[in-house]
Amino acid sequence: QAMRHLHPHLHYARLFSEAPQDITPVIAEHRAVLNAIVKGDADAAAGAIEKHLRTSWQRYSVWSESQSKK
Question: How far is it, in rounded angstroms, from Cα 63 to Cα 61?
């Protein structure tokens, strides 16, 4: 449920941000999730997903705050 609510906001941020986004950390986060799944390590996958969601929210929050100051 949290993902369904978060996804539209992240998509909006990516589409309408005026500043280019460095997606390098996002790719690394996705790779960590995939590697854990491939290894069959459910705990590592859950941790990687949690980290990705937390840092995605932080990135979105920074973007959102910058938009509200305009």
Answer: 5
Name the token pair of 16.
Answer: 């309408």
Report the range of poorest mean pLDDT among 6-15, 16-25, 30-39.
Answer: 6-15
For residue 48, the tally of other CB atoms under 10 A from its CB is 21
The single-letter DSSP state of residue 69 is T
Summarize pLDDT for 27-67 with one digit per residue, the tens: 899 999 999 999 999 999 999 999 998 998 888 777 777 77
Rounded CA-CA distance 60/36 in Å is: 25
Cβ neighbourhood burial of 10 (10 Å; 0-12, 13-18, 19+): middle
Q: How far apart are CA 49 and CA 67, in angstroms?
A: 27
